[in-house]
Structures
1.
Amino acid sequence: MHRVTSSPLARTYRFIAASLLLAGLALVAPRAHAAEVIPSLGMTRTPTNGDDTQLSYGLAVRGNIAPMLAAEIGVGYRKDELLAGTVESTQWPVTASLWAKPLPMFYVGGGAGWYNTTLKYPQAPLLTSETSQKFGVHLGGGISMPMIPGIASLDLNGRYVYLGDQASQLPPNNYKADFWTTSLGVAMHF
């Protein structure tokens, strides 16, 4: 019986090729998770307020519903000033999104939400606050970068929210309610 041996150089090349193949599969193949819980901190900007940005907070639950498609439900909180600080706008949206994932780290898509908005007049104590609800849509995308593989990822998300004109019985009687938001969160995998 003839035994075939390979040279150390050939074994090294096979080892490197196998290692690269396994590393490539680990990067390309998404890990299956039941869900991700994503608390986030963001910056929002209303186009009519110039370059002023405000903090926003969010909490979302995201899960894969198909190999390259994820669904997300989220809640948020944001506060903004309108008309040079004469009106405070407080908003807490409840949103649903569908994200296409062409690559495991990147996602793009949009969704809809129910935006609850309270207008308060801090400089005019006689005027009461007013709360309204409005349906809105959003488009955006993001990147999810693994921090601890299988446990947590850093999630950077940007979106434009279209709410159109918001009507109010108190001044301002009509204002543009659209806004941009960019958020950074930690996606904890379960």
2.
Amino acid sequence: MTPPPPERRPALIVASIALALVGWAGLIALANLTLPTVGPRWLFFAAWLTALTGTAIPFARYLNQRFAKTVPPDSVLLRQSIWVGLFGATCAWLQLGRALNWAAALLLAAAFAAIEAFLILRDRSKRPFDDSATPPKR
């Protein structure tokens, strides 16, 4: 028995491509055309967050298709990708002050994963219980 083909989500694909192109093009432009003063540093963090978010969307979609029972809506996939971008931007900011180490990165990743897990649990608790999936009691 073959699994059903994955559904196409053109809005999410367009958003992923747009975010990735804008982010990576912004990073290339910042690296080649500016000096590392205060303004371009903040633009770097914004471009880095955008590039990582756009790049992470296809991976988040694949992992959810592979491991989740149902594929979540586009907003959840975008939120999960934003966590990846926020993690990367925060790690870059911590590295700027030489405060990033393995423990800080793992603690930050665990905190973001815990927040996402709680958000998923909250979304799951709002859905009605599906009684058809449980076997009948004797």
3.
Amino acid sequence: MHMQLIFVIEHLEPEIGKWLLYEYAHASKIVGKKHLMFTNVRNKSDWTKLSKLGKVETRSATEIFSREKVLILDPKADLPLTPEDFAGKGVLVVGGILGDIPPRGRTFRLITKRFRETTVRNLGKAHFSIDGAIYMAKLVNEGTPLEKIPIKKGLTLKLNEHAEVYLPYAYPFKDGKPVISHNLVAYLCSDKIVKDEEKLLKTRAQL
């Protein structure tokens, strides 16, 4: 990995639920705390949580970095990410958004449109989690072409003999296993998620 590259997550959710926090924490583990920055963090308690995972900024990435140095990951981009795209870039920006299926285009609306005339790329037609996107970008930055990274669209987690959870996103695979937070898997397989997600859905519906 190019040591000067900063992976930036532009925080765009109204609050940090457990699901989002687990993805953020896993992203920090993937690239290392010193290479990760969270921007647009306005809430003091969110700042406290995220400062353990990387550098935190109240300002948006659009206010901090010059467009010439920025590479944005956006599902609506016309071209897929390549190792060559990182030449001359010091910042990779990912939207801190819990994905919708189908996507609502929030990365484009809230980040890309505000970064005029910068480089914007996608990760193919698949829709990844935040930490999955960070992992994919890290490998491409290290020289691995996107099409050489094994992925699987859709992931099923077995709860018990009678129940399972299906995640409709794409996940990179490493050594035959999906790149996903172990803490998130444990959470998804617990009964805590139902109440937590109901609360978050109500909050997001008001946006």
4.
Amino acid sequence: MILALAVPARAEPLPVREVAKGVYLYQGAHGEATAENHGGIANIGFVVGDASVAVIDSGGSAHQGRRLHEAIRQVTDLPIRYVINTHVHPDHIFGNAAFLADEPDFVGHAKLPRAVAARGAYYLEGLKQRLGSASEGSEVVPPSLTVAERLDLDLGDRVLRLTAHRTAHTDHDLSVYDAVTGTLFAGDLLFRERVPVVDGSLKGWLNVMSELRAIEARRVVPGHGTPTADWPAALDRQESYLRLLRDEIRAVIRDGGTMEQAVASVAAAERDAWLLFDDYNPRNVVTAFTELEWE
């Protein structure tokens, strides 16, 4: 009797859309990572050149990464040469494992290896707890190519310009600019609709946003939220929130208030302006208070 070997079912392709010529995006859900969404809460995508493909953030689990891989193969058979991670957060990196067989360069900020070493195991354990069996195959894949300041990646008559930023959303944020279409992948340096998350430096983020405004992009893909051609005005809403966070925390500190008082009051006027506000604004206040109390 001949036994048939089991062939793993191919993943269903992610429903990506072409936001500019050769630039494809899957827009993540606004919410927390769950087994039902396989960690698919961040914007992820890919860019196709004449000779190769670059992935820009791979997703929140190996399953989502496999679906992204299938989406790429629906568009092109060109080799996947680069998998770029804009920063270490789980919703952006755990799809990396789905691309290991392609043997790409995994690309990140020069400080990303340190962040992966410090947080990777913890994030993976958290992923397993939240997703259960839906996290199967996910693993920590560190960068093999890092960017200290700037790096150009040529996909074949298509150059992606990678910029390593100073501490902002994290201490290792990377943005990606496609020179052909003028599309800026800002990673989590830009949140739209969902409240921004401060994991690095509030003051640093405000400074980096001033630098981002100088980029002559024709459209921007945020780390979370809807892409837009309204650039650099797309930064305005986020900047207003972060400035309010800074100014109201400074006022609490100046008046001798405590962190607990700040958590209860700071940026309360913004509650109706952002999704997931009550989940993340208190964390932002704690992070920013710690930074600002020693000015």
